[in-house]
Amino acid sequence: EAVAAAASANGTAIEVNANPARLDADGEFVRAAIEAGATIAVDTDAHAPRELDNARYGIHTARRGWAETSNVLNARSLNGLRSFLL
Description:
Blueprint: H1 2-9, E1 14-17, H2 27-35, E2 40-43, H3 55-64, H4 78-85
Helix pairs in contact: 2-3
């Protein structure tokens, strides 16, 4: 919870690593992050094109945490992304 609160306060996105060997953030962590006002970013951690399909694991994790499109940085429009970054 402290990490999520700090991320929210500092405008920092929290990574949901979708690599099946990692999956460090679970649904409960995602939900706590969202409740703290944090933004998450789903990352495939792909090192080869065939690993891009790992995104599905991160998306499932985000959904388990009740994340909506507005909570996920890389699901936002270009203007939404710019607003977060600037």
